[in-house]
User: Fold these one by one.
Assistant:
Number 1:
Amino acid sequence: MVEEMKIGSFAEALSSKAPIPGGGGASALAGALGSALGQMVGNLTVGKKKYAAVEEEVRARMEELSRLSGEFLRLADRDEEVFKPLAEAYGLPKETKEEREYKEAVMEERLLAATMVPLEIMERAVQTMEILEILAEKGSVMAVSDVGVGIQFARTALLGGVMNVYINTKSMKDRQKAEELNGRAGELTAKGIKLADQVYGRVLEGLKN
Amino acid sequence: MVEEMKIGSFAEALSSKAPIPGGGGASALAGALGSALGQMVGNLTVGKKKYAAVEEEVRARMEELSRLSGEFLRLADRDEEVFKPLAEAYGLPKETKEEREYKEAVMEERLLAATMVPLEIMERAVQTMEILEILAEKGSVMAVSDVGVGIQFARTALLGGVMNVYINTKSMKDRQKAEELNGRAGELTAKGIKLADQVYGRVLEGLKN
């Protein structure tokens, strides 16, 4: 499990030529760190008189972030789990017509599984951003810079994820399905970049003044 | 040491209200992961006939990234080390004139130390981007998506770093020094965003086609 790996060992494994962990797992980790930073902001907000009016809402957002953080770490593992079956499928024989048809069907199924992981990372990255946007407004001003750092991590999860969607859909034979998945990834990218840049910009302006 | 922490424990510590690790340490970690992804691209390039002509250069870049990765992890530790003295300085008494002068001098010195860490993270983030730009062009096309993910991590290190520069310079009494540091941070931000977005955009276009 990625969660149990030491940071130095993860960075070393990432830097090696072994395909896992790779950009997909790293993107999931970025999401987990982004949501952890949001939880930190929440923890610095609740229990303070000044923020009593928003405490209930902030607590609800913290619970969502805690769930998201766990899901990102599980997606980092999942990214490794879907890799091996896909690599095996690439190695299937394709001498006879039957072999080719079988290989194509297996490849298609496993490419879809490998695409769903980064697409789920992207969905959760945008959800994390939406919560960070609320925390930028309602959370403790003392922790606003952590909202800014957190939203950059969520942005990396999103834009790391989309790369791994396109890599997998590129090899799919069902082009309609591939275009549908790329379309969803494109929507999330556009929405997430806009949101992340808006929230980051607001936080940065606030810090400068 | 951050390097020795398990990923799950780091995320949990990050999410707590304890000030360290916070956005500064997380930014340093983003830099380490970005440079690790660049090393992965290098490792997937060297030793391949197709890339024999660029092997020497790619190896040189990998060494630079390995050094940067280690420096980022040390900066994550350093970010924690400078925090305690600064927090202590905030707590110094300011009853008498002598106490106020002493406090101001100590604060100033420790704010500067706390500013230098994210500024060094920013410098190294841009250096990492410059190497990733070269790898986007010369590295294995099989690993190009990892360049794209890596440059997003470096971008997060940069934009997480600048938040932590501004937080600390904001409290400095020596406004000329503060503006000088903010100016350098602003230059790095502008240069880094442009570079990261260019490289990422090229990688993404290449993947789509």
Number 2:
Amino acid sequence: MTIHMDLGLDSYDIIVERGVLEKAKEHLNLDRRVLIVTDSGVPDSYAKALESQCKECVVFTVKAGETSKSLEMFGQVLQTLLEHGFSRKDCVVAVGGGVVGDLSGFAASAYMRGIDFYNIPTTLLSQIDSSIGGKTAINLCGVKNVAGAFYQPKKVLIDPELLKTLPERQMANGLAEAIKMALTSDKELFELFEKENIESHLDEIIIRSLNIKKSVVEQDEKETGLRRILNFGHTVGHGIESSEEMTGLFHGECVALGMLPMCKEDVRERVINVLKKCNLYRELEYDWNKIAEAAFHDKKTEGDVVTIVLVNEVGSYEMKKVTCQEVIELAKSVLKG
Amino acid sequence: MTIHMDLGLDSYDIIVERGVLEKAKEHLNLDRRVLIVTDSGVPDSYAKALESQCKECVVFTVKAGETSKSLEMFGQVLQTLLEHGFSRKDCVVAVGGGVVGDLSGFAASAYMRGIDFYNIPTTLLSQIDSSIGGKTAINLCGVKNVAGAFYQPKKVLIDPELLKTLPERQMANGLAEAIKMALTSDKELFELFEKENIESHLDEIIIRSLNIKKSVVEQDEKETGLRRILNFGHTVGHGIESSEEMTGLFHGECVALGMLPMCKEDVRERVINVLKKCNLYRELEYDWNKIAEAAFHDKKTEGDVVTIVLVNEVGSYEMKKVTCQEVIELAKSVLKG
């Protein structure tokens, strides 16, 4: 199916279809220079499947993991484009997860002040979340997403078949974001998580999540207001993720933890059950000062006050301005098992 | 006077007024964290005049010259913003020439995916040209403006008083761009250059040049068509500027040379007289292979064909697609004295 993102001049289509990678050229204009950016954790065969459909193609493989979202790698992608004589009319295609999409999207936005960018996300997390919405970024000095651009792809191809090779923990990582979206915006999706077999409902989970994100992004492309609901669970989640000693945790795992303090008690009980079903952590013991420090380097901070998103009832949300200290106290009281 | 740039959501005002730097806070919102980016060639007193109007201010000084438009300096500006806890609601102010404006504008566009950017250009070249239009960039591997963003400032303050300290050669450097704009778009401005004392007509030259640029940028913000007329003289000009052994020449000096092959013979004679009056070079002996190589790394290239702008009659222009080789032959025939 096709989901149309309606963003004026920046509009684009998301194609969700099993096997779409194999026929990418029906959807993408590959009749020009193509830079495929992928990472060492993605099966080679994915980039190759795309490469075989291109006339003139360069494959750039970064090391899997968050450390590749660096200024240095950003420079290397730009240099690769330059060395291979890419013009303003050529394009970049991301074949990988959020790291690859964020890095190569930012490079595409900057190269000659913007060349076409396509995204073929290969993880569940990037299929339902980071591949759409146009947020690209790199990290700096250990702080996530310090520099980047709002830059919309020209098209996104989502092939759920690609998830067959995805490790179980990466799957859970993506499910966490789907649960997040269900909690603020889609009661039925949350009930699906509670009642149904998740694997056999994967396409539905992807499509419902995309539709939630579509609706939010269309109303608030540049993240000035409503889009904050997508940050549900992220204030504490980013703090956990950014704090040095927590580098072993995945983004979704951190967000899952970060959601719990933001839910009303009865909702929280239901969330805990769903997280259990998805093999996600439900509690955390840690040095909260370090998490607090990392959390509030976060860009959503304005002075000492942050806007948090609370879920009092499944499928709805409340935004509230609180101090950083209050967020940490809340997180500590819930997560310190 | 105020020139309003009408670019929809990205609209902004350019204030042209002698002494406006001293009362910048009447025009800019300085009641927040402010990063002033300046360079070692700009009188200290300029950044200080602005700093004294801020509550919370950091001054970042880069080395004067094109080498500061690097990925490394881009990273350092971002790191400075991060280390001083700048949020999305704070701002960056450029106090300097095109290098400072391009570098800090790109950093402002990228930091947290975009914070407010003000520009206070201190050279004639940046006052009439690079400070408006929203093109920001850095260089890479010796190639100019490889990476950047279209990012409009929130306001531009143009204080012609600041030009009093500008070296004569820098003045000529700016006049070259004004002559360029006159040639394609303003016959009267060109006649002013031919007949009047330039120094005593400086404010008029600035304002007329800004109005030409305003009109072009408003019609073509993202440089898809019409904006190419601003590139008159730049295809060859960039080639001269980018070729390694020519690093001694200023941008405007290169553009002045680059315009000559693009003018019809009788127009060229008039241009040569005006360039002489402004102390700009009129001829060049050089290794044309190197210039050709540098010229066609240029982003306006598409395959082997480039669009050049020709002036057959003062105040009008013609766009023409020619091969790279034809451009070089034309340049050689005119410039090799």
Number 3:
Amino acid sequence: MSLFSKKKPSDFYPDWYHEEAPKDSYRSILKWGSPTEFKAPNRKLYKLMKETFDMTDDDFKVKQEMGLEKVDFDMPPKLDEKHIAKFREILGEENVKTDNYTRLSVAYGKTMVDLMRLRKHIVENLPDVVLYPGCREDIIKIVEYCNEEKIPVYVYGGGSSVTRGVEPVCGGVTLDMRPRFNKVIKFSERNQTITVEAGMSGPKLEEILNNAVSLFGAKRAYTCGHFPQSFEYSSVGGWTVTRGAGQNSTYYGKIEDIVISQEYVTPVGIIKSDECPRNATGPSIDQIMMGSEGTFGVLTHVTLRFFKYMPENRCRFSFVFKDWDSGVNAVREIMQGEFGFPSAFRLSDPEETSVGFRLYGVADTPIDSLLKLRGYEDGKRVLLLGFTEGEKAFSKNVFRQIWKICHNYGAMYTTGLVTKGWEKGRFNDPYLREDMGDYGLMLDTLECSVNWDNFMEVYENVRRYCKSRPNTICMTHMSHFYPQGANLYFIFEAKMSDLQEYLDYQYGIMDNIQKYGASMSHHHGIGKMTAPWLEAQIGHNEMEVYRALKRHFDPNNIMNPGGTLGLDLPEDKRRDFITKK
Amino acid sequence: MSLFSKKKPSDFYPDWYHEEAPKDSYRSILKWGSPTEFKAPNRKLYKLMKETFDMTDDDFKVKQEMGLEKVDFDMPPKLDEKHIAKFREILGEENVKTDNYTRLSVAYGKTMVDLMRLRKHIVENLPDVVLYPGCREDIIKIVEYCNEEKIPVYVYGGGSSVTRGVEPVCGGVTLDMRPRFNKVIKFSERNQTITVEAGMSGPKLEEILNNAVSLFGAKRAYTCGHFPQSFEYSSVGGWTVTRGAGQNSTYYGKIEDIVISQEYVTPVGIIKSDECPRNATGPSIDQIMMGSEGTFGVLTHVTLRFFKYMPENRCRFSFVFKDWDSGVNAVREIMQGEFGFPSAFRLSDPEETSVGFRLYGVADTPIDSLLKLRGYEDGKRVLLLGFTEGEKAFSKNVFRQIWKICHNYGAMYTTGLVTKGWEKGRFNDPYLREDMGDYGLMLDTLECSVNWDNFMEVYENVRRYCKSRPNTICMTHMSHFYPQGANLYFIFEAKMSDLQEYLDYQYGIMDNIQKYGASMSHHHGIGKMTAPWLEAQIGHNEMEVYRALKRHFDPNNIMNPGGTLGLDLPEDKRRDFITKK
């Protein structure tokens, strides 16, 4: 590659850093996913970035703030040694860690602010001690002790939070749930449910269900149905407490549709919901606890539905519409068609379609030429892709109905290959961020929930704000669809490495999401990042309900304290935004 | 008919009382539904009852406790006149009533205990005054005033509660929501949602949606999808606060799947959820309020999803299996088949099948003979009936898949006619109770929620208890299905007119439902009737969550006080039952 670029200077392609990060370095923490997996912007994206960001090849010759340095700072644990001794007594010596690297490695999630801080060696918040519980009893003892001693308790699952949800802003302990609290407790093929400890990782759960025949003597293979983009580095506990959604949620449902029951250890005792599929026995305990993001207690066990693993029944499709309006009307009609829902389903706006065609290898192919010939113009046309699932005839019929509706809205069928291209990148796009960050480029996303009535206004105005910054890419898509609305995703890319500049831009986007009536999150959750907007969105009286629950479960405010969900956010930190409604 | 019975004395058929109840009589209150609609047990059911209850024609010659007398009792309102004056000031003279008949007519629901008490002229609990609010502002003023003055507030919707949910055990005011608080607030065809006032009746909502073209200029007709047996005398508010389910819930979902947003007036202010289809913005406000059964506040507005009205796509079916096990395995496989769900869906156990065949006119027909010939024996065989809905090809495919699975489990297809027979009676079966009650016969139901793992144990043991009483019919069916379980319905009929005898029997059934691990209700709710069992079912810590919410919303305990949901139930009234789990 570098040989080639020497010969043709105009074909310069950056020398991306694709080496395992040095041991104990900041980069080893900020890096997404596998230490040995990488993903560079391809040549077409590279070209687009240069054009859009007004950059030259020279700007990609020197890397910056790579975080290759060994983690090193002077912030000794503030927690009294007697407490640490107590934790050692509960968990054993080896399951209590206080070294700097371990503490920093569970302090941040994976939002842009986290990555930027790590690149800049900004260590703001740390747990005093990292604990590795191995069973429910460990967690009960830890929560009881911390409640007595008023020690803050944070929980770290997969570490993929993009809302500063895991950040221990008040110090104290962080429970790292993955290493030792990840077992299967119960598998019921008859109920089609599996009960697991909260530290179970997404891929491990899927592997277990795929192998149910050999592991449990089941009749067939199953799937969990929940595949967020962060899938490979996410945990069942994290899915649940944040109200997450997988990329196939249009068919399988959001995590609240998949979770059948939960168990939490709270300062006032264990909370456990039953395993009946539905009840009329008062408010839903499950729905009170889901979305509490660690502020009411520690989620220990989750019983999840699972589904038949039938990839052979998938029908992949993609369609290109002449314009955004046609695409939006078509997906709404599909979701209201009462023939079942597709599984993966994604409608990209003109800008994302344009970028996507380069990324998925459609641009400049015969399909692209044909599209242009037929009047599907770049910059106006929009791409719908996805696949159907389920029982064979069901899946085929959903495909057929989608085809019919898209055809009625003037779409051109562009085969299932585009979807295959998207599938290849669906879990590894986050790897792009390291390579981009090395050249001072920011890539981040925000998402919100809309209904069909307010969707277009939210789309237009948030996008207008995003694009008001020069030299900025703003790609928008809808995914996670419902008959009544959808999730709306904004992906923005720019040359930006100043933390405050980034935050100002991000806050502006969130202000606009709120101003035009969207819900602040469909599946990322609130954490500490979006917390200042929560009260203005859900309302003061509604926020007081959350605070009443918080006082009940956690009278000493030890569970994920410091602003999570806006529960203990000082009034001057709450965005006083007047929504348009 | 009576001429015929004179000729052939063995064909005696009772002279059912099919006249409009006298004005202002107890019977006019206890009678189900329309004053001029009646339904007598048909001759086959009459014969079965005589056999089972060990009765003769002579027992059906004299009626008892018919409640024909004019409502008359001496329980003047206890509320100070100044309060009543205040309500008159808020609502106007004509919307405040204190006469005995009006007060009694909103005091009870329609459970057996209610009907028995009315037949016996037992007036235990009454509101002091009945109010007819006409708008949200009326309700705000009433709740504010009652909260200041600590006056209990009860809400009466359709009046079909079977849990003593509406009973004003502490006196005070009852808001009768139907007459004046029943308007459409918003219709959005794009969102497929309608916002209505809580007093809107089921049939009116359905009529409005069926006529959306002429009423709102919509493109087509729609349906609400929610048809509880009480449909004709139910209200949207009642559906919502009790977590109700319609008979077609397997396809359309329970009310919590249909409700998109709600607004409540509580003593601490208005609580309103947003109209986005899904959120990740903390615990679900909707799911905290749904199931609160009037104990947190007054539900004023509900935004519901609606669906395309496509009765032409229905495929009706019925199948007979050789035994209960085959039927149960088949329905589980259907629900886990991932081809979509049927709409109406009902699997009757051997006893209900036997009775049902008489009621739906199958017994002694050629179908019956053929069944017997092929080894589907009465007393063992079970009936599955229902229909599919949705888009045409979807509906057909669900039908085809059901057919395939039933066939694999050895079922015989018995056409859609049986379903048609069931549909005729689906909303008017409750009318049977007046005719039966006139001869001292009790007909009541209890329902619970099970998962597939505990279903058979619950079924066998609850049924064993029911049948331990001699001369008692106990029919059981499953309806409202999920991939993880179902709702289990027990219908019991016996000669029983003593209130205490009835209560002892009912309590025994509920003890057994709880003992074998079912959830105490799938869709009737808890009310005051099931409240003593709630804490043992959901657990003490979970109950304390409800109590914390109650303290928050209603610090003066004015909202539906007196044991509803077990919130202010004295400890000695809580059933101290050790569940088997």
Number 4:
Amino acid sequence: MSTHLVIMAGGIGSRFWPMSTPERPKQFIDVLGCGRSLLQLTADRFGTLVQPECMWVVTSAAYADIVREQLPQLPASNLLLEPCRRNTAPCIAYVSWRIKAIDPKANIVVTPSDHVVMDVQEFLRVVASALRFTAETDNIVTLGMKPTRAETGYGYIQADMSVPSARNREVFRVDAFHEKPDLATAESYIRQPNFFWNSGLFVFRVSTIVNALRIYAPDISVIFEQLLPIYGTPAEQQAIDAHFPECRSISIDYAVMEKADEIFVFPASFGWSDLGTWGSLHERSPKDANGNVCIGQDIRMVESRDCIVHTTEERRVVVQGLDGYIIAEKDDTLLICRRTEEQRITQLSQE
Amino acid sequence: MSTHLVIMAGGIGSRFWPMSTPERPKQFIDVLGCGRSLLQLTADRFGTLVQPECMWVVTSAAYADIVREQLPQLPASNLLLEPCRRNTAPCIAYVSWRIKAIDPKANIVVTPSDHVVMDVQEFLRVVASALRFTAETDNIVTLGMKPTRAETGYGYIQADMSVPSARNREVFRVDAFHEKPDLATAESYIRQPNFFWNSGLFVFRVSTIVNALRIYAPDISVIFEQLLPIYGTPAEQQAIDAHFPECRSISIDYAVMEKADEIFVFPASFGWSDLGTWGSLHERSPKDANGNVCIGQDIRMVESRDCIVHTTEERRVVVQGLDGYIIAEKDDTLLICRRTEEQRITQLSQE
């Protein structure tokens, strides 16, 4: 039984404009200023766990060249291109049927491409443990992050922690998925020991997810089922381009996770962030003595504090007298915005 | 008697960094966002008063190509190149001897290249009137700006206004030149009707300034006197490169104006600014309803006021929640600085 890695890389990262643009979204950018894009860091993270021929990337057709450039080790046939955006359920359905066509016993870990993990060793221990669990059971495992604050930007997983799984003492049955809560609700969640952040990391065997999709999303399943003869053939892309758009747009959480019975959660702590906000990037990044995060070649902060400056170019930046601002610059665009107003960035970018 | 125009274009505009850089200082930049550089606006301003063959530009050798590109009408022989910076006295000495060599009766107006004038009609009236005055007398005229505020960034001219010149009722003898004052002194100056800002605009016949330099700056005069045989010959530049550096660095105000007796001032009001500070640029530029000055192609201000944004590139800028800042961007440099701290920009640019 081979372990396959599926990296979902089709997001557009609009909250990180202008660092992230529709032409080159967040996952393809060296957000942390470490020399590797978030996609590359994601692939690097699984390096020892998955053979290159078992790594898959699903993304938009528009990003094909970026993925090929950033992940040269990815086999050409393992880059799956969506002709349009349909959220995560059609994405996972496509790659699952595609993998099933060549490896019906595949054990799969699915990951977003634009998250960060600080403790990779613990991360790999958890993933390997979850993979052993799914290898032996027909269950889906979600990785639940032990919450460290009343975050309203994440969905929560409520676990039944009365009895762990007999096969893995770290794995618990899921009672419910909860959408992003308001602050009071988030505060009540984190006071309870059985609520976890939904990381978007899933582990399952291919037969498990295919069966679950057949039951809970038959309209999506039938589309990829009918394409079985063409997977891996030169006709694949044309057929996908023709039929993928027929899928409704729905997340895997809505389509399967919240409906299926045999969903388990693996509570874990490995310094995870979805980097969904400038605030989370600020939190995850090294700061100077005044709380400034400076990602760029030549950034000088004078009498400034708690700012985050991000420039992907070799650009000289001098900031004087700013407190709590985002300064982001890319190509032909400059954004200066209070950190407290970052939820408006998508709107600001579009007006 | 021909009227000659001398444009001094050798400054480095360090206070406007990064808009102004040593490679392309302020006078060569479209500071006002009107499609013409300050140098071009200066030449344009005199368009009807001076024939192209009587226009002269003195600048650093490093800026020769920029001047040729921006002023294609300037005759090649009328571009004088300083091999090093020696302030305005050697600059004016060089061009005065150079003009004297071909037109000993020349009547000359000298202007900085990086100032703005709002009321060009009144400006031309004043300059023409001053030129008529110097055509008939052996006097030097400085244009004094009627002050509108207690500006500490300008030098002041104190006039004896008891009796105007018999030849021009608008012209008065100068009692004293005063350096940039502190605020209390500036306030006392502007309460008196005979104090004017020193604009750096001078009018004189070539014989007048040459004689004044011979008397008050003989060490400088002798250098340009000895070069008389080579002006206008192919040997000129080499001789200037060899001997110009021998001049001490001194302004024409110190070298001549403050010492000579026959100095007159022509008080005037034509909406002049030396654009010496971001504040003066802010003051001189059209503002939006919130007091923002936006010079650039695509600048959007949200919940921001009293800012000045300058980008010479086709760059998109979105600013949210800033009050009283300078945001200036050029080439590979971005500066964000409180307007109240603008006097530190030169320092910030150098660290």
